[in-house]
Amino acid sequence: SAAEKDGHDWFMRKEIHEQPRAVADSLLGRRTPEGRLHLDEMRLSDQELRDVDKVIIIACGTSFYAGMVAKYAIEHWTRVPVEVELASEFRYRDPILDYSTLVVAISQSGETADTLQAIRHARTQRSKVLAICNTNGSTIPRESDAVIYTHAGPEIGVASTKGFLTQLVACYLLALYLAQVKGTRYGDEIDEVMRQLEAMPDHIATVLASADAIYAMAAEHVDTRSVLFLGRHAGYPVALEGALKLKELAYIHAEGFAAGELKHGPIALVESGLPVLCVVPPAGRDQLRDKMVSGIQEVRARGARTICLVEDGDDAITPYADTVIRLPKVPVLLQPLVAVVPLQLFACELATRMGHDVDQPRNLAKSVTVE
Ligand code: G6P
Q1: CA of 277 to the centre of ligand 1 (A)
Q2: Is 249 helix (H, G, I), strand (E, B) or coil?
Q3: Residues of the chain whose pLDDT is less than 50?
Q4: What gap in Å lies between CA 4 and CA 349, rounded to an integer?
């Protein structure tokens, strides 16, 4: 009923709008009065975590893209090498694991069969397994050595939204916690990053407040058959997630690419009128940002219609953007928390206008319990 959906047409739209709260809840109670990070369900000792010399993140679907962001954050803050792998690939390739490998399984439902089989395998190899999960008492956290619960609340829409944002939060917390335990130089910045994280719910609310502009853009794309998404660095997984949302909900062809790969293939797809959605890195990261700008110029010169997600106040892009979507100013590693939101709104609205069932897209299941 409409009441269950808070007056929204879909659970998914409701869940998108719950994201400021979900992110705030997932940050709640993580900091001691002395400014130390504290994770209550972290059952691994400081010594066990100090011994970790490699992290392997495994997940499926949207959770896998959270893992890609986690790699950037963990490596940056801890200097521990991180691999990210699809659970279904990890399980059957004979991965190199031992007691000093920390395997991080990210799963909203905690029941995804591929991810479950992957952690079972990791434990037979004596690796420690930490689950990032939204569902209390589900199988994956029960079979793991430690868990960080996200506090998104129940997610009903099949396509993950608030689940994803809260997974990102848990990944940042894990990265900072490892930095604290290992005593890396970023250990001193934990307080500052936590403050930046605590400001994110307001930033996400700012993005949601301009939903109407995104909906208007979606209205212009109801006849679109194909969309490309480009991103770099932490914006790359955002591009992949934006494309996945369009496939899941609107059933249209959508591909996400690392913008640097454009010239190695994807640019051949560009033809007149093709929408290309570009996640532009924050202006503080000028090298990244400038490379992105040249990618945008390249596709535009070949007739693409560029839709650019750009940090507020960054006007270097505007001459090359057919549509500009403004994002709040946030650090580059945290940008996925705001950048993915317009893409969720876009996919939800486009699918609605195309007459699709947004909450239960054809052929998909909320939790895939078969391999
Ligand atoms: C299904 C859902 C996706 C989800 C994926 C992984 O495909 O439709 O939204 O991202 O499973 O689910 P998990 O519960 O393991 O995060």
Answers
A1: 24
A2: helix
A3: none
A4: 19
Contact 361, 249 (CB under 8 A): yes
366 is catalytic: yes
CB of 108 closer than 6 angstroms to any ligand 1 atom? yes
Separation of CA 261 from chain center: 20
Amino acid at 180: Q
Contact (CB, 8 A) for 344 and 161:
yes
Distances (CA, A) of 231 to 234, 278, 279: 8, 6, 5
Q: Tens digit of pLDDT for each residue in 133-161?
A: 999 999 999 999 999 999 999 999 999 99
User: Ligand 1 centre and the CA of 159: distance in Å?
Assistant: 7
Candidates 348, 22, 8, 3; CA nearest to 205 is 22
Residue 82 tokens read as 């991180």
Q: Specify burial of residue 355 (Cβ count, 10 A radius: 0-12, 13-18, 19+).
A: exposed
313, 214 Cβ separation under 8 angstroms? no
Q: CA-based angle 194:199:200, to the nearest 5?
A: 100
pTM for this prediction: 0.97
Task: Output the pLDDT for position 187.
Answer: 67
Residue 278: what pLDDT?
Answer: 97
ipTM over 0.85: yes
Q: What is the reported pLDDT for 327?
A: 97
Q: What pLDDT, on the 0 to 100 scale, is given for residue 252?
A: 95
**Tokens matching residue 202:** 């307001």
Strand order in the sheet with 82-86: 82-86, 54-59, 101-107, 128-133, 146-149
User: Does residue 109 have its Cβ closer than 6 Å to ligand 1?
Assistant: yes
Query: So what's the pLDDT on residue 241?
Result: 98
CB atoms within 10 A of CB 43: 13
Read off the amino acid at residue 175.
A
Say what the alpha-carbon torsion angle 188, 145, 65, 205 is, to the nearest 10 degrees.
-60
Tokens 């979606």 sit at which residue?
218
